[in-house]
């Protein structure tokens, strides 16, 4: 767990510096995703795993315990989202990284925005919390646990389903099902740092057209921006910058 957290903080720091210097694009995000799958995923066993932390925190509290480690883990990741938006989700989460890589298999994606993905994710998060109170069974199908490489049938099947779905839908687990996705989206709405348009943006719309989550529109909270770099490559005037956001 400690090594996973250390890796996450290091890759986040590197990506934050590259983003702030305007030296990050789609290829940089892909390189980070490969590293994260290999190190945070395959080498370190799929950590940090906010889904297990969420489950253990809710279950522990429901049993009258104080589950210190999962609560601290969730609090730290939420604090990072408050500070840096979806930087953890974008580059340091092993499951997010696997979905990011699969998303490049094809450019065409099913647009799920019309199906209210945030509502679906919120409902799934509530359902997971209720399930966590009743039973630990969800952990056996938690896709993060694929990285254990014990090849538990439920977790492995779920991981492969998520990967296959990522070809057609951008980050389906993150956007529709992940409980930490719901938490970090809320925290990211007013994050201190984030991607935003500079004042000299010409409103040409190129960045919006390539964004898989329709984020860089005027007035957007950018809370579903996974810092994938597509818009950074698309903007010919370098008008998208990562840094302190206006309030
Ligand atoms: S939303 Fe969940 S699965 Fe997706 S990158 Fe964030 S923590 Fe990982
Ligand atoms: S691509 Fe650049 S110039 Fe065009 S709308 Fe986006 S940020 Fe503005
Ligand atoms: S605004 Fe969209 S295209 Fe740009 S980095 Fe965020 S998710 Fe990617």
Overall mean pLDDT stands at: 96
Distance between the termini: 35 Å
Spans of 5+ residues with little confidence (pLDDT < 50)? none
Percent strand: under 5%
Q: Give the SSE order as H and E letters.
A: HHHHHHHHHHEHHE
Shape call: globular
Q: Measured on Cα atoms, how large is the radius of gyration?
A: 17 Å
Structural class: mainly alpha
Q: Main β-sheet, in a few words? A: 2 strands, antiparallel
Number of helices: 12
Number of extended strands: 2
As laid out across the biggest beta sheet, the strand order is: 1-2
Ligands in the model, by name, code or SMILES, are: iron/sulfur cluster
Number of domains: 2
Structure description:
The chain starts with a helix and ends with a strand. The mean pLDDT is 96. The protein has twelve helices and two strands; from the N terminus they run H-H-H-H-H-H-H-H-H-H-E-H-H-E. The chain has helices at 2-20, 26-43, 50-62, 68-84, 87-92, 94-103, 117-134, 153-166, 172-177, 179-188, 206-210, 230-234, and strands at residues 193-197, 240-244. It has two domains: 2-188, no CATH class; 195-244. Strands 1-2 form a two-stranded antiparallel ribbon. It is 57% helix and 4% strand. The structure holds iron/sulfur cluster (3 copies).
């Amino acid at each position: 767990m400690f090594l996973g957290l250390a890796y996450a903080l290091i890759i986040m720091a590197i990506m934050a510096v590259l983003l702030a210097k305007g030296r990050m694009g789609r290829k940089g995000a892909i390189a980070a995703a490969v590293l994260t799958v290999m190190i945070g995923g395959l080498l370190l066993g799929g950590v940090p795993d906010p889904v297990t932390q969420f489950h253990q925190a809710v279950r522990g509290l429901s049993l009258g315990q104080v589950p210190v480690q999962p609560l601290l883990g969730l609090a730290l990741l939420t604090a990072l989202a408050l500070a840096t938006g979806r930087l953890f989700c974008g580059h340091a989460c092993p499951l997010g990284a696997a979905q990011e890589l699969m998303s490049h298999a094809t450019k065409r994606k099913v647009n799920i925005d019309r199906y209210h993905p945030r509502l679906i994710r919120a409902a799934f998060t509530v359902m997971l919390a209720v399930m966590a109170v009743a039973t630990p069974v969800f952990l056996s199908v938690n896709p993060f646990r694929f990285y254990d490489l014990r090849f538990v049938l439920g977790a492995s099947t779920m991981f492969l389903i998520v990967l296959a779905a990522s070809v057609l839908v951008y980050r389906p687990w993150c956007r529709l099902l992940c409980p930490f996705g719901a938490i970090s989206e809320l925290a990211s709405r007013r994050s201190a740092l984030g991607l935003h348009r500079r004042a000299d943006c010409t409103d040409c719309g190129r960045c919006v057209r390539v964004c898989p989550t329709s984020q860089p529109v005027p007035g957007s909270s950018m809370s579903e921006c996974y810092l994938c770099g597509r818009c950074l490559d698309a903007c010919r005037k370098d008008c998208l910058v990562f840094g302190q956001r206006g309030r």
